[in-house]
Amino acid sequence: MLVYGSRVTDTTTDTAHRPTVLFVCVHNAGRSQMAAGYLAALAGDRVEVLSAGSEPKDMINPVAVEAMAEEGIDIAGNVPKVLTVDAVRESDVVITMGCGDTCPIFPGKRYEDWELDDPAGQGIEAVRPIRDEIRRRIDVLLAEILPAS
Question: pLDDT digits over 40-56, tens only?
Fold first, then answer.
């Protein structure tokens, strides 16, 4: 069973509820975009995936795009979005990456803060380990929020 908002969901019988996961980092150009890309690719339509930033950049970090392309995941068409209260309210799981203090808190939500290096200004060699750690954490998250197939 998982707690979503104020209700308890038995994931073995509740097929109507798709969990919504929001990834938040400062610029919504690197870490949160890579995490959203992995979750969308691995979970498909079983999870609603959102990402946002407290101070979004104009474009996705090209090195993050390159690192994800190496994994066969295309995030090049994504656009950084500003974090809104509504995005947090609509999410079941909120994962912050270096901007936890700016994220609104709502009772009944699951919050995690993933301490990850910021890929901004880094080369591909430095971004690959960040990407790989995000993948590891996404695998754990998926096992926790989705019932076994």
Answer: 999 999 999 999 998 99
